[in-house]
C-alpha cells in the first residue's frame, strides 16, 4: 500500500477523506477491531510536555531613536535575554534571544516559559535594558508591540521520552521532579504521550520532514529539521512558529527542583501513505516501551510500557474542595509546579486553565481534595520485579488529546492544509 500526500489531499478537498485522531485508532485496536488503509487517510497526533530546547527571538522598541546607541543587557520580568545578533545602533530597538531555560534574577521559580505565556496572554512585561554606556532604561512591552516574535524549537516532539526513579539513598534536585526526588525508588516521574505522540506515529519520518506544517502551541508553524541529539532510533524535531498566533493555554513555565522549565505543545497530521505508517498508528500504549532511568546516575535500569502511565488512569485531577483539612502548610499550594492552586476566603481553589494535570497534588494532599489514578511502573531490575507508583507526569495527555481532536476539525473544515515535506530528515 503506497499513497502520495497529493492523493490524500485531493480526497480531503473532495470531502472523501477519513481523518481520525491517534486516540480514536488506538481505541478501535483495543476493542479488537481491524483498521486498514481503507479506514483512515490521516491520523492527527499531539504532545504537550516540558521541552527544554526552546528559545524565542523577539524584536521590539524600548525607547525613541538615538536615546541609546546599543543595548548590552536585557531582562524581561527579570529573565535574562541575549542581545542581538543585530545591533540596531541608535534605533531604540532591541533584538533579543530568550532561552526557554533562563531563570529570573528577581523571582524564584519564574523563568522564560512564564514570560512566553504571559506575552501570548497579552500581558505587559517589564523590560530593563542596560546600554553599552552603562545606563539603565526601564520600559514595558506587550506582544502586540513586537513586530517580530517567533518561538523556535531546538529539541521538541521527542519520540516519547522516559520514566525516572531515584535509586540512590539521598534526595536529588532535578528537572525531572517538581520537588526533591525522593530516594530509594519511592516514586516515579515520566514524560511522553505514548500512542498519540507525533513521531511515535511516524517513527521512520516518512511524512514528517523539513517543511512539514504543524501546530506549535496552537499556531501554524513548520518543521525545519532534526533536533539536537536526534537520531533515527530516537528522533526529535526543530521547528518555528509565530508567537502572535499561539494559544497561551498550551505553553508556560513548570517549576522543578532544579529551577523552572518551559512547556511546549505540538500537533502534527500524519498522512497514511504506507503500510509502515499505518502499522505505527496501530500501536497502542501497551506496545510502546517506556525506558526507566535512574535519575541519580542517568542510566537505564529497566523498561516498562506507556500503558503503565496512560491505560486505565485519569487524564485530569478530581477536585473536592469540601475535603480540605485546612492544614497549616498546604502542600498542594506549596508544591504545585504551575502555581494553579490557591486559597481565597478560607477556601481552596484550582485554576483549571493553569493546571498541567501532572497529578502531583494528588500525591501530597492528606485530605483527598485532589485525587487521581496516575498509574504504577512495573519493571524488572537485576532480576527483581519492581512496582513504583507514578507521582508526577511531565506530559499533559489530556490537552494533547484535545489538540489532536482540534487539528482533526481544522483539517476537515479546510482551515489546516496538509502539505508535503520539502526534504526528508533521514533519507
Automatic annotation (TrEMBL):
| Domain 4Fe-4S ferredoxin-type, chain residue ranges per copy | 315-345, 346-375
Q: Which InterPro entries match?
A: 4Fe4S_Fe-S-bd (IPR017896), 4Fe4S_Fe_S_CS (IPR017900), Fe-S_Ferredoxin (IPR050572), HcyBio (IPR002708), Methan_mark_16 (IPR017677)
Superkingdom of the source species: Archaea
A molecular function (GO) term: metal ion binding
User: Keyword Cytoplasm: yes or no?
Assistant: no
Extract the Pfam families matched here: HcyBio
Keyword terms of this UniProt record: 4Fe-4S, Iron, Iron-sulfur, Metal-binding
PANTHER family per the UniProt record, alphabetical: 4FE-4S FERREDOXIN-TYPE DOMAIN-CONTAINING PROTEIN (PTHR43687:SF3), ADENYLYLSULFATE REDUCTASE, BETA SUBUNIT (PTHR43687)
Under which name does UniProt file this protein? Answer: Putative methanogenesis marker 16 metalloprotein
Species source reads: Methanolobus vulcani
Amino acid at each position: 500500500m503506497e499513497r502520495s500526500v497529493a492523493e490524500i489531499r485531493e480526497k480531503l478537498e473532495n470531502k472523501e477523506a477519513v481523518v481520525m485522531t491517534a486516540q480514536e485508532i488506538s481505541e478501535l485496536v483495543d476493542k479488537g477491531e481491524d483498521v486498514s488503509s481503507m479506514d483512515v487517510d490521516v491520523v492527527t497526533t499531539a504532545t504537550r510536555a516540558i521541552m527544554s530546547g526552546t528559545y524565542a527571538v523577539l524584536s521590539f522598541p524600548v525607547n525613541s531613536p538615538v536615546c541609546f546607541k546599543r543595548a548590552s543587557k536585557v531582562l524581561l520580568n527579570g529573565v535574562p535575554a541575549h542581545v542581538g545578533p543585530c545591533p540596531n545602533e541608535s534605533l531604540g530597538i532591541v533584538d533579543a534571544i530568550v532561552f526557554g531555560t533562563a531563570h529570573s534574577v528577581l523571582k524564584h521559580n519564574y523563568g522564560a516559559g512564564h514570560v512566553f505565556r504571559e506575552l501570548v496572554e497579552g500581558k505587559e512585561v517589564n523590560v530593563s535594558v542596560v546600554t553599552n554606556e552603562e545606563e539603565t532604561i526601564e520600559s514595558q512591552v506587550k506582544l502586540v508591540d513586537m513586530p517580530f516574535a517567533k518561538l523556535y524549537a531546538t529539541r521538541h516532539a521527542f519520540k516519547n521520552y522516559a520514566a525516572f526513579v531515584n535509586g540512590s539513598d539521598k534526595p536529588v534536585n532535578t528537572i525531572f521532579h517538581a520537588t526533591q526526588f525522593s530516594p530509594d525508588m519511592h516514586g516515579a516521574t515520566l514524560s511522553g504521550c505514548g500512542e498519540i505522540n507525533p513521531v511515535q506515529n511516524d517513527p521512520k519520518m516518512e511524512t514528517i520532514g523539513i517543511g512539514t506544517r504543524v501546530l506549535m502551541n496552537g499556531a501554524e508553524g513548520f518543521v525545519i529539521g532534526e533536533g539536537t541529539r536526534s537520531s533515527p532510533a530516537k528522533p526529535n524535531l526543530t521547528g518555528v512558529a509565530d508567537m502572535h498566533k499561539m494559544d497561551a493555554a498550551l505553553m508556560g513555565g513548570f517549576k522543578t527542583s532544579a529551577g523552572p522549565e518551559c512547556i511546549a505543545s505540538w500537533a502534527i497530521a500524519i498522512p497514511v501513505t504506507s503500510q509502515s505508517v499505518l502499522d505505527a498508528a496501530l500501536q497502542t500504549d501497551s506496545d510502546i516501551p517506556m525506558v526507566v532511568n535512574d535519575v541519580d546516575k542517568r542510566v537505564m535500569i529497566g523498561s516498562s510500557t506507556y500503558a503503565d502511565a496512560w491505560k486505565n488512569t485519569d487524564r485530569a485531577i478530581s477536585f473536592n474542595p469540601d475535603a480540605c483539612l485546612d492544614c497549616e502548610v498546604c502542600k498542594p499550594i506549596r508544591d504545585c509546579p504551575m502555581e494553579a492552586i490557591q486559597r481565597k476566603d478560607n477556601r481552596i481553589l484550582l485554576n483549571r486553565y493553569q493546571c498541567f494535570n501532572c497529578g502531583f497534588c494528588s500525591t501530597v494532599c492528606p485530605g483527598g481534595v485532589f485525587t487521581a489514578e496516575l498509574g504504577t511502573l512495573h519493571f524488572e531490575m537485576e532480576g527483581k520485579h519492581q512496582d513504583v507508583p507514578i507521582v508526577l507526569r511531565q506530559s499533559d495527555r489530556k490537552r494533547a488529546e484535545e489538540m489532536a481532536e482540534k487539528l482533526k476539525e481544522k483539517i476537515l473544515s479546510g482551515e489546516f492544509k496538509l502539505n508535503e515535506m520539502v526534504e526528508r530528515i533521514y533519507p
